[in-house]
Automatic annotation (TrEMBL):
Gene Ontology biological-process entries: D-amino acid catabolic process
Entry similarity comment: Belongs to the DTD family.
Kinase as UniProt keyword: no
Protein name (record): D-aminoacyl-tRNA deacylase
Record keywords: Cytoplasm, Hydrolase, RNA-binding, tRNA-binding
Domain notes: A Gly-cisPro motif from one monomer fits into the active site of the other monomer to allow specific chiral rejection of L-amino acids.
Biological source species: Malikia granosa
Main location: cytoplasm
Subcellular compartments: Cytoplasm
Entry function: An aminoacyl-tRNA editing enzyme that deacylates mischarged D-aminoacyl-tRNAs. Also deacylates mischarged glycyl-tRNA(Ala), protecting cells against glycine mischarging by AlaRS. Acts via tRNA-based rather than protein-based catalysis; rejects L-amino acids rather than detecting D-amino acids in the active site. By recycling D-aminoacyl-tRNA to D-amino acids and free tRNA molecules, this enzyme counteracts the toxicity associated with the formation of D-aminoacyl-tRNA entities in vivo and helps enforce protein L-homochirality.
PANTHER family associated with the record: D-AMINOACYL-TRNA DEACYLASE 1, D-TYROSYL-TRNA TYR DEACYLASE
Length: 147
């Protein structure tokens, strides 16, 4: 399972002009389920992103987690993180989970996140989304979990 975490001061997702998810300070997470991913892998990824110390403390050091600051979590499915660009100029997405499995794992991560964190918003799986964000720092961290 792959993710790109962006520390934001605000972020929002719209579909066909309708606002469907919005947070203030927190993390925008672009999330991709790959072939062979499991709920155990999803659990590891979620635990890591909730506890990753990438928010500043009083001394300005990145020493606080999303849970420490009580920030928002905006989860957006993005199968294109599985892109393989080694074979030419058109990316291949063969490593992405099949759509049904990708949706199941995305929904699982969302449910687990809502059980573990008070502020969770989402995009819409398989929709043409517009994502706006103000990257704070900027801080952008790729994250990959394997079995």
């Amino acid at each position: 399972m792959k993710a790109v975490l962006q520390r934001v001061s605000e972020a929002r997702v719209t579909v066909e002009g309708e606002l469907i998810g919005e947070i203030g300070q927190g993390l925008l997470v672009l999330l991709c389920a790959e072939r062979g991913d499991t709920e155990a892998i999803a659990d590891k990824l979620l635990a890591k992103l909730l506890k990753l110390r990438i928010f500043s403390d009083e001394a300005g050091k990145m020493n606080r987690s999303l849970q420490d600051i009580g920030g928002g979590l905006l989860l957006v499915s993005q199968f294109t993180l599985a892109a393989d660009t080694s074979g030419g100029n058109r990316p291949s997405f063969g490593q992405a989970a099949a759509p049904d499995e990708g949706r199941r794992l995305y929904d699982y991560v969302v449910a687990q996140a809502r059980a573990a964190h008070p502020v969770v918003q989402t995009g819409r799986f398989a929709a043409d989304m517009k994502v706006q964000l103000v990257n704070d720092g900027p801080v952008t961290i790729p994250l990959q979990m394997n079995a």
